[in-house]
Amino acid sequence: MKENFKTWFAHLPAVPGMLACGVRRPNGKCAGLGDETKYPAEKIEKLLGHFAEQEKLLAGFAPRWTTWAFEYCRLRFVLRPDKCLLLLLVAPESEAEKSLDQLSREFLTIVVK
Amino acid sequence: MTREKNNESGLHVLIVDDDRDDLTILVDSFRSLSEGRWRIDAVDSVGEALQISKQGKTQLVILAVNTPVLDVSLLLSSFSQSSFDQQQFKLKKVVMTTMVTDEKRAASLAAGADMFIEKPLSPEGLKVAFAHISELAGWELPQDFESGGHSVALADLIQMECLARNSSVLELFHEQSLGRIYIEEGQVIHAVCGELSGERAFQRLFILTGTFELHDFEPPPERTVNRTWETLLSAAARQLDSLRDHSGTGQSSGDAGHHSGELDYQAEEMLICGSAGEVLYTWQCPDAAGRMALLQAVAGHAGKIIPEIQLGKLDRLEIQLPDGRAILQPRADRMIFVGLGNRNRKT
């Protein structure tokens, strides 16, 4: 996929039910998008940091992605071979939840510059 | 339920919906379902609604207006203060919305709504809503409506009860009572089916055929369910899909939707531990100690991040593997690990 990653990422909040999203680059730099009141960027970045650690715990499984199903939302983490980590925070039973697998596949194939 | 029914002179109903297409659907459906015995006034503006309300004939008002919370509250207050609400009959007020939120529910009920439900969009949903509203208004359903109860989906009824934060008992029959589902303030708290109880009973009731009745709430002998109703219904739907798939009557696996992929998996290992880490059940689990350690680590990790952001309790962690899935459920009372392999895996 040759689509520009920034454009792809910027469009994620438009998916109905997408509460927030974030990306952690291999160098540790993070970026977050979403409702600034409920899910401010610094919390999304902190969440990415937490789960970057958690992914190490799951490394033995070589997961394609993980989904944390909480009471009020779903957290999808997708870790690429280049260590770029994506977080999608979606509402349960939403269009965004149904799109999680498709978006995860796109993230695994998109060129991140 | 032993409520005095209110059918003799028909029921004067006022439906307010600012979406004219939806208004037409609601009016046509409810008129048809009541066999023409609901006398319906239909308006698409709040001003007209208040004018009609002053005539003092309306017994039931259904507000399906797409206005902010504050406006709905003010409107309900206006109805409550109008003269006809002070008459011999108590005006029943129902709020319908396409966007159900806790804020709207709380505000509507606080402002005097007797029922708060999601606006039905399907014929089945309209039928369920009609049954609920009729019950609220003390209006007896047509006889053939009750005999057609098979078609009213159990899932829709549970959803409706839970969204409205109702308390009730659903009883399933087939010649004799098959089981009961207890709902308290919008949460499923207990289910019983024969010797089964809890979630297994809930799931079993979904695959049985029969009719069901809604009773007034009574406290159950015990509380055996503590998952959210959304999770319970989702699991029941997956179970039904799976059964249909196995019986060859389901949709093809190529159908869109996030459930379809789940049908391609089969269980390959399972581990159930108690809260103290003791193994309660294991099946084909190659590394029980490792799985248990992972479950504990996941539970600990989830506990740490919850204060950071409003996520609620962790229900499960799903790990998508190259050729299967793993599902971890680290609950306070027990921890479960299930490994699933792809049925179509190339060996």
Describe the 3D structure.
The complex is a heterodimer of chains A (113) and B (347). Chain A has 113 residues and is α+β, with helices and mostly antiparallel strands. Chain A has a single domain (5-109), classed as Dynein light chain 2a, cytoplasmic (Beta-Lactamase, 2-Layer Sandwich). Helix content of chain A is 34%, strand content 27%. Chain A is built from four helices and five strands, in the order αββαβββαα. A five-stranded antiparallel β-sheet of chain A has the order 2-1-5-4-3, with helices on both faces. In chain A, a hairpin with a 5-residue loop joins strand 1 (18-24) and strand 2. Chain A is globular. Chain B has helices at 20-33, 46-53, 69-81, 102-110, 123-137, 143-147, 154-163, 199-207, 229-247, 288-305; strands at residues 11-16, 38-43, 60-63, 92-97, 115-118, 168-174, 176-184, 187-193, 196-197, 211-216, 265-274, 279-283, 314-321, 324-330, 334-342. Chain B starts with 10 loop residues before the first strand and ends in a 5-residue tail after the last strand. Chain A binds chain B through residues 38-39, 43, 46-47, 50, 54, 57-58, 61-73, 75, 92-93, 97-98, 100-101, 104, and chain B through 228, 230, 234, 257-258, 261, 294, 297-298, 301-302, 304-305, 308-322, 326. Strand 3 of chain A pairs antiparallel with strand 13 of chain B.
